[in-house]
Amino acid sequence: MNTSQSGAPHPEAPGLSLEELKALGQKLAAHCRNYRDTSLGRSLTQLFVTMGLFLGSFALMLWSLDFSYLLTLALALPVGGLLVRLFIVQHDCGHGAFFRSRTANDQLGRTLSLFTVTPYHFWKRAHAIHHANCGNLEKRGVGDISTLTVGEYKALPHWSRLIYRLYRNPVVLFLIGVPIHFAILQRIPFGQPLPMGQIWRSILGLDLALVVFLGGWMYLFGVGPFLSVYLPILAAASIISGWMFFVQHQYEDVYWEQDGEWSFHLAGLLGSSYYVLPKTVQWLTGSIGLHHVHHLNSSIPNYRLQECLDASPELLAIPKKLRFFESLKCIPLALWDEDSRKLVRIAEVRER
Questions:
Q1: What's the number of CA atoms in the CB half-sphere (13 Å) around residue 118?
Q2: 150 within domain boundaries
Q3: Phi first, then psi: what are they for 339, rounded to 5°?
Q4: CA dihedral 6, 9, 15, 17 (to 10 degrees)
Q5: Domain-embedded: residue 336
Q6: Which residues pair with 136 in a beta bridge?
Q7: pTM across the whole model
């Protein structure tokens, strides 16, 4: 499907031309604007309940060390989910969507970075660039998962192709790369795609704060016990977060377009998935699976995304809807094919 042809229908919306889809995207963006208002009561309740559950579960994991480390590791997955939920609160703060006050959002976002180990202002800036350019082929590279076109991949020398294949290998990407990114690469201010002044203040400022904050926890509970609990939680949370971000923009008929033809509204409507998850998992992930709603208007607090979705039949019907087992089919898709306008497997390119 070539979205540059105004009369061509999209596979997720047969019967609608490109111009009709653009108009629909604008209509749905206007609908989403009605759900931007935050509720101080709901925000504070979400914050205190999530933080209370996280700290209580952290204490339970420390207690479990006296009985079985296997039990400790088993608890790391749900507790990691609670850390993801705290990250969603930090994420909302970065979008100015958790409190009405920008100052309150920034103060809470910086505080939560001590738990999520994600430098708040650096991440906020990079993530804003992601939202502004999602699906734009000419503006890739900041706040997204590296994705090459078929033509770009074919033009690479052998070793560069090998590096890209390793990068997109699921074991490397999710089990190794994402935890390393959260725990280590976010500590390093070099090689980042933003102005150096912003990077040094945000990243090194958090690094110094983490030395004091995490050092205090290690002094209180002991270095070994603390790291035996904290590192599995961080690994679980990073893998969950990495997978969620991957599946939100990496599926077969995802929207990508050249800069001159690119549309913000189409990128939100057709370039961001609707990940249908069990209610408990949706709660832990702050409804971020309703990603098309979030990209149509990032100012909607996470606790209103479902409300916004339920109020619009088009928001329920048009975007790419993925369930868990179906989403696993997205893993090998690693190249954007300019001809078929789909994400394809690297093996398909080698077979041509």
A1: 29
A2: yes
A3: -80, -55
A4: -20
A5: yes
A6: 257
A7: 0.91
